[in-house]
Amino acid sequence: MTQIPSRPSNEDNLVNDKTKHAASNDSLSNDSLSNDSLSNDSLSDEDDYVADIDLGDSKKTKTSMSVIIAGIVLTILTIICLQVDDWSRDWTQNTSETDPAAKDIDMQPIATSLSTTDFAELVVVAMKDIPRWKLMDQTVDGNDRTKLDFVHSTFLMRYKDDIAVEIVKTVTGSTLYAKSQSRVGKGDLGQNPRNIKELIFNVREKLKNAKTFEKADDSNK
Q1: What is the distance between the alpha carbons of residues 82 and 74, in angstroms, rounded to a whole number?
Q2: Domain covering 95-220: architecture
Q3: Which of 73, 78, 81, 119 could form a disulfide bond with 114, CB atoms 3.0-4.6 angstroms apart?
Q4: Other CB atoms within 10 A of residue 178 CB
Q5: What is the mean pLDDT of the chain?
């Protein structure tokens, strides 16, 4: 006798549907996890790429900064070397003064027919507009002597040098002597002689102009 299979009940169908739905959800979840994994791998690759770019930029920046710093140091050293006039003197001495026996006329004292006070006023005017020079004090010792104290600041490092100018009365008028002294350093790299030369040169130029004006006034008379 053949047994006829029984038809599945509604409950069995409902269970099967739930099972299929759950399986479908599991498959979707696995696909989602797989996509998330791919996304994470992609993000990780992008992060590594960005990190490599940042590292490369950082190395380039450090290299550029090193080149700039080296260039600045080399420029400073070049300027210092160019300023040295006497390698046997400029590294070991930090003072300089006028000398009647100097070969350079701008290192010699200046003799003039002016009185000490008039000569002092001319020096003040001559140095008034010279960059990095400043008159600090002016002392008059009767008619025999006038002292002027200047401070000069170096161009690059702004070091201070003290320049003492002394104008002494003579039989024919007065004579200017000057001494420059660095405040710091064992050697001045030739700065103090340059201070003396700059002072003497500008004062001589002012004297020439004054004499020119005097000659012009005499011719008009």
Answers
A1: 12
A2: 2-Layer Sandwich (3.30)
A3: 119
A4: 23
A5: 80
Our measurement of the distance from residue 108's CA atom to the centroid of its chain's CA atoms, rounded to an integer in Å, reads 34
Q: Are 194 and 133 in contact (CB under 8 A)?
A: no
The whole-angstrom separation of Cα 83 and Cα 75 is: 12
Q: Is the pLDDT of residue 3 over 90?
A: no
- Cα 142 to its chain centre, rounded Å, is 45
CA dist 36 → 25, 32, 51, 143, 160 (Å): 16, 6, 22, 100, 71
2: amino acid identity, one letter: T
Q: What is the pTM of this model?
A: 0.64
Distances (CA, A) of 216 to 81, 83, 208, 212: 45, 40, 12, 6
Domain regions of the chain by residue span? 10-83, 95-220
Contact 153, 168 (CB under 8 A): no
d(CA 147, CA 137): 8
Encoding tokens for residue 15? 């269970």
Model confidence pLDDT, tens digit, residues 110-131: 999 999 999 999 999 999 999 9
